[in-house]
Amino acid sequence: MSDLREIKNRIYDEELIIDILEALECLNINEEQNGQLFTAQLPIEFQSNNKRAVQVKNNESLTSHIRNRGIQGDIFSIIGYILFDCQEFEDVKENLYEIKAWICNLFGWNEYMDFVTGFKSIPKKQEWNSWLKPYLSSNKTRDLFEDNLNRKNRPIDRSIFTRYIMKPHYEFIKSGINCQTQREFEIGFCMDTQRVIYPIYDNDGKEIVGIKGRYVGKNKDVAEQKKYLYLIPCDKSILLYNLHRALPYIQEKQEVYVFESAKSCMLAYQYGFKNAVSIEGNEMSNVQAYLLIQLKVPIIFCFDKDMDLSFIKKQAKLIRGGICYTILDKEDLLNEKDSPIDRGKETWEYLIKKHKYKLNCYNSQKLKGVKK
User: Fold this and answer.
1) Edge-to-edge strands of the sheet including 256-259?
2) For a Cys-Cys bond, which of 28, 52, 202, 252 suits 41, CB 3.0-4.6 Å?
3) Are residues 20 and 97 both part of a single domain?
4) Domain boundary among 114, 130, 149
5) Residue 91: which domain range?
6) Tens-binned pLDDT, residue by residue, of the chain (372 aa)
7) For residue 320, what is the domain's CATH number?
8) Structural domain total, the chain
């Protein structure tokens, strides 16, 4: 029996349909037809007044559909539509691993998760439904969320800097990051690994919790496959890089720029845009999403040009109830792998003025331009 079939059987046998609908934040959940049918209203952000739009049959197949939305299939289709904007069956197939991970994290069914050979590479500690938990009525799920959010990285003594040459590096200067900015962000160099290094602080900025390095040596294989490497690892999924430095400026400007990399934050800081953080990758974790939500300001995603728009929208969808924008280079001012800030201050300012677009995160409508 496949894992997916067994998961459906467990949902049916253990009578967990209502638990799933509650976790999805559906409204007006009701049991009908002597327990043979469960109905509910879509979550509030879908702006649906139909109190019976979501319908799940209490049978082994968990036959389901969403009225007037063209969504038909089983409970996986419901989850896929609400959480991952799956409009078609192919969308559900593409997101099956995420859907499966969400269910398993909700009920603690780790035995079904193969984090090495699964459909996609997903870190074992990542919880796809963490961003839901603060809003749930269940004490159990709230406690689980708080445990996840309160995870801490082990602090590192500042004597770690004695291992490195703590001076600005020429490779970063070539990237546009001047010496003053490099000193502010404590740039150094590791002779043993031929990497320019910078410290990763906790969200409060009180403790160093990791050291990350960018390879600047001459080995092409290393440069292509392991350009960035944590010399001292930390759990980056519970951090927003530069948050401690950016927080007062985020509060002042009432918006936050979210980049993929620390270098982009450094450039933004140098250009006077000090309200910037990085997720240190191209996929935001749920704790990072929660941290952004808590800022209570509009969020501007400044991902690299090669990032697919549909993927950016999925990231923005984690910011439940928040206002999100993205920068889109519609005039080909950037190279394929450039961050919006990589081509200099003038280009960056032009992009945020002329090419900032509001993201409609909860349906498939086109982006709407935003006028200042």
Assistant:
1) 276-278, 256-259, 299-302, 324-327, 356-358, 368-369
2) 28
3) yes
4) 149
5) 3-149
6) 478 889 999 999 999 999 999 888 889 999 999 889 999 999 887 878 899 999 999 999 999 999 888 898 999 999 999 888 888 888 888 888 778 888 887 887 877 765 433 333 333 333 334 444 443 444 444 454 455 566 788 899 999 999 999 999 999 999 999 999 999 999 999 999 999 999 999 999 999 999 999 999 999 888 888 888 899 988 888 899 999 999 999 999 999 999 999 999 999 999 999 999 999 988 888 889 889 988 999 999 999 999 988 889 888 888 876 789 999 999 999 998 999 999 999 999 999 999 999 986 543 333 333 333
7) 3.40.1360.10
8) 3
183 and 288 belong to one structural domain: no
Query: 359 to each of 209, 238, 309, 321, how far by Cα in Å?
Result: 33, 24, 10, 12
Q: Distance between CA atoms of 339 and 333, rounded to whole angstroms?
A: 11
Same domain, 356 and 295: yes
The phi and psi torsions of 122 (rounded to 5 degrees) equal -125, 125
Domain of 211, CATH number, reads 3.90.980.10
End residue of a domain, out of 102, 121, 149: 149
137, 191: one domain: no
